[in-house]
Amino acid sequence: MTRKSEDAGGRSTIRDVAARAGVSASTVSRVLGGEYPVSSATRTRVMRAVRDLDYVADARAKAVAGVGTPTLAFVLEDITGPSFALMAHGVEREATRLGHLCLVCSTEGDVEHELEFVEMMRAQRAAAVILVGGAADTAEYRARTRRMADSLASAGSRLVLCGRPTLGPGAPVTVIEYDNEGGAFALVAHVLAQGHRRVLFLGGKADHTTAQGRERGYLAAHRARGLEPDPALLLHGDFTRDSGHRLMRGALKNGLDFTAVVAATDMVAAGALTALHEAGLEVPGDVSLAGYDDIPFARDLHPALTTVHVPYEELGRLAVRTALGRTPETPDEHLLLGTHVVMRDSVAATGS
Amino acid sequence: MTRKSEDAGGRSTIRDVAARAGVSASTVSRVLGGEYPVSSATRTRVMRAVRDLDYVADARAKAVAGVGTPTLAFVLEDITGPSFALMAHGVEREATRLGHLCLVCSTEGDVEHELEFVEMMRAQRAAAVILVGGAADTAEYRARTRRMADSLASAGSRLVLCGRPTLGPGAPVTVIEYDNEGGAFALVAHVLAQGHRRVLFLGGKADHTTAQGRERGYLAAHRARGLEPDPALLLHGDFTRDSGHRLMRGALKNGLDFTAVVAATDMVAAGALTALHEAGLEVPGDVSLAGYDDIPFARDLHPALTTVHVPYEELGRLAVRTALGRTPETPDEHLLLGTHVVMRDSVAATGS
DNA sequence: ACATGGATGGAAACCGGTTCCCGAAACGGA
DNA sequence: TCCGTTTCGGGAACCGGTTTCCATCCATGT
Fold first, then answer.
1. pLDDT tens digits, one per residue of B240-270
2. What is the DSSP annotation of A42-89?
3. Helical pair A40-53 and A25-33, crossing angle rounded to 10 deg
4. Are A251 and A279 in contact (CB under 8 A)?
5. Which residue does chain A place closest to B172, by CA atoms?
C-alpha cells in the first residue's frame, strides 16, 4: 500500500493515472488535453486508466496553472425577490451557455457584507462580478463602489453594475440600466389619459436611485400635461409587499383623496391591492392600480395588474455577455434597456 | 523592470509582496496565516507591502495546497420558481454563514445537463452538491443518481437530495424531504370538513414523486372519511401557473361537477384562480380553492389562498448544515420535515 | 548504409500558495 | 562567560495540474 492508494475514497491524481497506465504524468495530461500527438496505443491505455479510476482533473489546479474557465460572480440583495430571481436566471443561463460557473451571494442589503464578498471574488480571480439592484446614490456609495471597481480591475477582473447608479467617468465599470423614468412616465401618462387627476404614488426609499427614477417619471408625466401633482400623494416606503400594504392602509385611514394609485413595484402593488380589498374597495371600479416590473405573478393578481415590463432576464444575459466578451481595450460601456407598459385590467377610465 | 512587475494590472503574487517587504515568501505566508510567531517589526513591514500592493492570496492556489474552505454547489430546475428561490435563499444564507461560497446551476429540467454539472462539481472538489426538486422515480433515475452519489463520494464530496426520491439503501446520500402526503392529507381533510364532496385535484406529472405524494394525500383524506373520490376529478399537468390555468379552463369547459379545487402547488392555484375569475366564478362563494407550498404571494391573491406551508428556506439551511457538518463516520441521514396548513380565505363551507 | 527529421514521451520547471525542516540570532540562567 | 533555549526566518518540498525542452526511436531519402 503506497502513500497514495488508488482505492479508498482518495480522489486520484494525474500521477495515479500515469502509474496505472505505465506512462508519465505529462503523457496523461497530453492525452486529456487533446492537441499533442500521442500514439493510439498509449492513448487507449491512458483512457482506460482514467475510466478505471474515474479520474477527473482538479479544476482548481488547472486554474492555478492558468488554464480552465474562470467563474462568474453574482451579487444581489435577496434571491427571493421575483425581479432579482429573473435577473439571476438570465445571468446563470448565459454564463453556463458560455461555459462558465456561477457563484452567487445575497447581501440582505448589508453593504459591509457586499464589500467582503467582492474581496472574496477578487481572491477567487472571478472573471467578473455582477452587482445588481438599486442603491442609495451617496458620495459614500460612489467612493466605495469605485474602490471595488478599481481593485477588481487591478486583479484582471471586472465590475458590472445592473440597475445601479453610475460611477463617475473613468471608473473601470460596465453599467447596464433599464429606463426607470421613461417607463414610469409612460405608465403614469396612460393613467392620466384615463382621466385620473389625483393619482397616489407609492414610492420607495427617497435616496434609492431606482425609486427616484420612477418618481421622476411620475412627476414628468404630470407636468407634460400641465398638471402639478399634490405632494401629499407622494408616499415613501420600500419595495416590499408589506410596505405597499402598510402605505395603502395608511392612505385609506387618513382619508386621502385619489382615484388611482401607481406603485413603484409590482410587489408594492400586490400589498396595496390586498389593502384595497380589505377596505372593501373594488379595483378598478373604485380605484385604479398600476405596478412596475411585470413580474410573472402580475397577471394572476385580480384584477390582472397593469404594469411596466422590464426585461430583467435579458438584462442578466446582457450583463454576462458584455462582461465576458471584452478585451482590455474595450471601452467602458453604459447600456440603457427600454421598457414598455403592458395594459391589463387594473386601470380603468374615471367615471367623471 | 522585472518579469513580474508590481504595477500594471497584473495581480501581485506572494513573492512580489515578499520582495517588497524584503523577506521570504514563507514569512509573508506566515504573517498572513496568523499562527506562526513573527516579530512585530517584520509583521508591520509585510503588512505594509500587502497594503501597498493591495494583495489578496489566490484562493484557488490555497485550495490546491489543501487550505481554504471548499465551495458548495446547488442545482435546481429554475431559480425563478418561488419555492426554489426560497430554498436557494436558505442554502445561500447558511453557506455564507458557515463561510462557504455557493455555486449555482439551473438545469431547466434537462437530465443530461444535470449530469454534466455534477461532473464539473466533482472537478471543483465541491464540499457537497445539493440537488433540489422532485423527479420521476424511475429505475433509470435511481441508477443515474446512484452513480452521481458514488462518484461524488469517491471524490470526498457528498450528494444531498432535497425533496427528491430516496435511493436504495447503501447509497452515500443525504436525503431531506418534506411531507407531501401528510400535508395534502391535512389540507384535503380540511376541505372535506367544510362539507365539500366533489373536490377537483389539479395534480402534476404522473411519475413525479412530489406530485404522487400530494395525490396520495388527497386520496387518503377521502378514504379516511370513507369517501371514494371520482377518478374524473383527478387531473394531471405540471407545476406551472399555465398548467393550472389550462387545466381549470378545460374542467370548466367540460362541465365537470365540483365545489372545491385543490391544486398541487400555489402556482397551479394561481393559474386556476384566474381561470375561475375569467369564467365569472366567485372564490370561495361559488367554488373553494386551495394551493400547496405557501409561497409569499399566496396571501396577495384574492381571495388570500388557503394552502400548506412548507418550510422551504429551513429546508435549504438544513441541507447545507447536514451536508457540511459530517464526518466520514456520520451515518447517511434521511430527514422528513413537517408541514402545516394555513387557512386563509379561499376555502369556505358549502351552502348545502 | 547513413544522415535526417518527424513522431513520442519523459524530466523538470512553473503556476501561487503552504508547511516542514533547519540554522542563526537573541535571550536567559548558572 | 558559556551554554542551552526560544524566537524568528529562509530554503526547499509539496499540492495537482500544464508546458517547455530534450532524448529517443523509427521511418525515410539518397
1. 999 999 999 999 999 999 999 999 999 999 9
2. HHHHHHHHHHHHT----HHHHHHTT-SPPPEEEEES-TTSHHHHHHHH
3. 90
4. no
5. A9
Residue the block writes with cell 391544486: B263
The stretch B206-227 carries a mean pLDDT of 96
Say what the pLDDT of residue B291 is: 98
Nucleotides in C strand less than 7 A from protein CB = 7-12, 14-20
Interatomic separation, CA of residue B244 and C1' of nucleotide D8, rounded (Å) = 72
Terminal Cα distance for chain A, rounded: 92
- Measure A92 CA to nearest chain B CA, in Å: 7
Least Cα distance to A210 among A81, A50, A71 occurs for A81
Please check whether residue B56 touches A, CB under 8 A: yes
Question: A250: pLDDT confidence band, cut at 50, 70 and 90?
Answer: very high
Q: Where are the alpha helices (DSSP H) in A254-299?
A: 266-278
Instruction: Please give the Cα distance from A217 to A203 (Å, whole number).
Output: 12
Q: Which residue of B has its CA nearest to A156?
A: B9
Q: Region B105-129: what's the mean pLDDT?
A: 93
- Nearest protein residue to nucleotide C10, judged by CA and C1' positions: A24
* B103: amino acid identity, one letter: L
Q: Which of A104, A113, A150, A152 to mutate to test the interface with B (most CBs of B within 10 A)?
A: A104
Asked if B92 lies within 8 A of A85 by C-beta distance, the reply is no
Question: How close B304 gets to chain A, by Cα (Å)?
Answer: 8
What part of A 231-250 touches B (C-beta under 8 Å)? 241
- Asked if A98 has any chain B CB less than 8 Å from its own CB, the reply is no
pLDDT for residue B27 is more than 80: yes
Where residue A91 falls (left for φ over 0; alpha for ψ -120 to 50; beta otherwise) is alpha
pLDDT higher than threshold 80 for residue A278? yes
Inform me whether the pLDDT recorded for A105 exceeds 80.
yes
Question: What distance in Å separates the CA atoms of residue B128 and residue A225, rounded to the nearest whole number?
Answer: 59
* Helix, strand, coil distribution of chain A in percent, nearest 5: 45, 15, 40
> In chain B, what percentage of residues exceed pLDDT 90?
84
Q: Do A85 and B80 touch (CB under 8 A)?
A: yes
My answer on whether omega of the bond before A303 falls inside 30° of 0, hence cis, is yes
Please give, rounded to a whole number of angstroms, the shortest distance from the CA of A104 to a CA of chain B: 6
Higher confidence at residue B1 or residue A298?
A: A298
B306 bridge partner residues: B290
Pairwise CB contact (< 8 Å): B270 & A86: no
- Whole-prediction pTM: 0.92
**How long is the CA A26 to C1' D22 vector, in angstroms?**
14
Strands A307-309 and A340-342: antiparallel
User: The cell 408616499 sits on which residue?
Assistant: A235
Contact call for residues A94 and A128 (beta carbons, < 8 A) = no
pLDDT digits (tens, 9 = 90+) for A18-39: 999 999 999 999 999 878 888 8
Give the β-pairing of B72-76 and B128-132.
parallel
For A65, A69, A113, the CA distances from A272, given in Å and listed in that order, are 55, 46, 31
**A14 CA to D25 C1', in Å?**
26
Cβ A129 vs Cβ A75: under 8 Å: yes
